[in-house]
Write a structure and sequence with these properties.
Order of helices and strands: EEEEEHEHEHHEHEHEHEEHH
CATH architecture of the largest domain: 3-Layer(aba) Sandwich
Largest sheet: 7 strands, mixed
Helix content: 25-40%
Bound molecules: spermidine
Structural class: alpha/beta
Oligomer: single chain
Strand order of the largest sheet: 8-7-6-9-10-12-11
Number of helices: 9
Shape: globular
CATH topology of the largest domain: Rossmann fold
Number of strands: 12
Amino acid sequence: MDLWWTETQTPSLRLGLRCSAVVTRARSAYQEVAVLETEQYGRLLALDGAVMTTEADEFVYHEMLVHPAMVACARPRSVLVVGGGDGGAVREVLRHPAVERVVLAELDPLVVDVSRAHLPGIAGRIGDPRVAVCPGDGALFLRGAPDAAFDVVLVDAPDPVGPAEVLFSGGLFAEAARVLAPGGVLVLQTESPFLHAGLIRTVQERLAASFPLVRLYWAVVPTYPGAMWTFSLASRGADPLAPGAPERGGALPTRYWSPEVHRAAFVLPPFVRALLSERGHAAAEPGGARP
Ligand code: SPD
């Protein structure tokens, strides 16, 4: 049997992984949720044909989504994860000893159920008593949350298409600013500078409308389109690059994030720095990137 899973990342770019099995494949009210056993990267979670995570490289994405915000915030007790139904972000949040409460606002309960059943190394901490799973629209959840309710908000979104588009909007960032406590920090994933330059710039501009401090950083996630992946961080002043901030996470049992990698991640190659100030980049994106 020669079984391949293929993601069409742009009309001109595909990722192909040979699989030994389809572990599960089901349709929810929102999307097709699948877990496949790949030969190269272990189990893979896909939503509507797009890789969300794989066992081999998930640690890069989840550590880099979570730890920069958690160490920028002096005492992260209350954390909101929007999306992130696979539980990888929750697992990393719970590594921080100050954490008392994590709310996981995932749109699709099937993502949580499938991840808990088939990706225990990623989803295994969702059952922690400090975690409350709140199925439903993350944007609506934010709108209903009280002022200053969270120290850290993490938007672990899929690609910005369909229902996920709102997670990259100025309205959502304004709500996030409202629900963050003083000293709080927002981080969201913002795709690849090779394929989504316009999106990155737009998100940074939208964040700047609600937050005085906005930063971009990056990591390498081999199974994501473009591989070089960015994250946008915003706060009212809590700075991930403040002296001593990365050292707050010095004892974390991580495989990618470290205080040194943290500092390096905020150093942007010139082409990424340039895209933040250029106009008309979106139209020039090669191959017609999906978002
Ligand atoms: N192109 C894939 C982007 C997916 C980003 N979110 C992944 C969620 C993993 N917890």
